[in-house]
Design goal:
It is a single chain. This protein has about 150 residues and is an alpha/beta fold. It has 3 helices and 7 strands, in the order αβββββαβαβ. The mean pLDDT is about 75.
């Protein structure tokens, strides 16, 4: 079976670009609106990510200090709380990791002991803070427990 060649369609009308330009502008608008313009920063207490630029922060935007609380959970376990968040008991590396994610050296860190925490445990917490970018560190003994640190079963 042999096919006959189709005659080419001849039109005098120019090709319409209006619809194509509309689609391109809609796509461009979508990508501009959905793109992140700045790097991610982490909230100190609950670790959600926001798109805030650190150079534009005002004085009231940051807490006065990051407070790390150490407390005896039992005779062998030290509970660690950073801000409002409980870290895994005895996991001093998580202090360094969290402070490295915050990465604001101008912010001071207060290591606070509640109860009869051994000085060896306080030193481990201080070493963990000093291994992070945060360099303004101070010590405090809490006069009374604020809230019990919970024990994670991980």
């Amino acid at each position: 079976m042999m096919f006959k060649p189709q005659p080419q369609m001849q039109t005098d009308e120019p090709f319409e670009m209006t619809a194509m330009v509309d689609v391109v502008f809609i796509l461009l608008t979508f990508f501009i609106i959905s793109a992140q313009m700045f790097g991610n920063e982490h909230d100190i207490a609950i670790r959600y990510q926001t798109a805030v630029q650190s150079q534009g922060l005002a004085d009231g935007d940051l807490p006065p200090a990051v407070i790390i609380t150490l407390q005896n959970l039992d005779s062998h376990t030290i509970g660690i709380r950073m801000g409002q968040r409980d870290l895994r008991p005895g996991d001093y590396a998580s202090i360094t990791d969290t402070l490295s994610k915050i990465n604001l050296p101008q912010l001071s860190v207060v290591v606070q002991a509640q109860g009869n925490v051994l000085i060896a445990e306080v030193s481990k917490a201080l070493d963990a803070v000093l291994a992070s970018p945060m360099k303004q560190v101070s010590l405090s003994k809490s006069p009374r427990p604020n809230k019990e640190i919970t024990k994670h079963n991980e």
